[in-house]
Specification:
Number of helices: 8
Largest sheet: 6 strands, mixed
Radius of gyration: 18 Å
Number of domains: 1
Order of helices and strands: HHEEHHHEEHHEEHEEE
Strand content: 25-35%
Shape: globular
Helix content: 40-55%
């Protein structure tokens, strides 16, 4: 329910300001190295949404086929939930992380990986491995995340540092769009240029 509310607030905010179409046209529908980041304020709540190809987060986009893939997905999920490391607000705003919601078929597949392989015969495993190898070149999976923060002094919010590229080096450029009570705008972020000033 909270995720639906957050999504509806983000959608309504960007649609009413003409950003909704822009955020899909700045980058292609699925461009490795690129991502869209949307930041919107609703009273004392700040919501940040990320739309990115899974390649930028995991280094692959096919269903996990090895223990290494499962470990990578687990570690990525842990890092994505560590929102205080990914996003740093200026201290005067006193913003605290509330929750995060992650959506991706790859994270769903992680839970079923071990059970699927326990019941397979060696011949079936070889055939499946070949199919998975082919799928590696055909799969295009995305990861969508919404983080929620609560700021005790939202009027003093002047700056946000985005550390996504520091933790996930495959990000080359991130198109960030923001709608706050005091300002709105669009900025392109990178590993070196990762601060948004509101």
């Amino acid at each position: 329910m909270k995720k639906l509310l957050a999504t509806s607030i983000l959608t309504a905010a960007f649609s009413s300001n003409g950003f909704s179409q822009d955020m899909h046209t700045q980058h292609g529908a699925h461009e490795h190295g690129a991502a869209n980041l949307n930041i919107v304020q609703e009273n004392d709540q700040i919501m940040i949404s990320l739309e990115t190809p899974a390649m930028n987060i995991l280094g692959f986009e096919h269903a996990p086929s090895t223990e290494e893939h499962v470990t990578t997905i687990h570690n990525a999920k842990t890092q994505l939930l560590n929102a205080n490391a990914l996003f740093e607000f200026n201290k005067k705003a006193n913003c605290q992380f509330v929750e995060a919601n992650i959506e991706s078929e790859l994270f769903d597949n992680e839970a079923h990986h071990e059970d699927e392989h326990e019941d397979q015969h060696e011949d079936e495993h070889e055939d499946e491995h070949e199919d998975e190898h082919e799928d590696e070149h055909e799969s295009h999976n995305d990861i969508d995340v919404i983080w929620s923060f609560q700021c005790k002094k939202p009027k003093k919010l002047t700056e946000l540092t985005v550390n996504l590229a520091q933790f996930f080096p495959s990000f080359i450029d991130i198109d960030a769009q923001y709608i706050l009570q005091q300002s709105q705008g669009v900025i392109e972020l990178s590993a070196k240029d990762n601060v948004i000033k509101f």
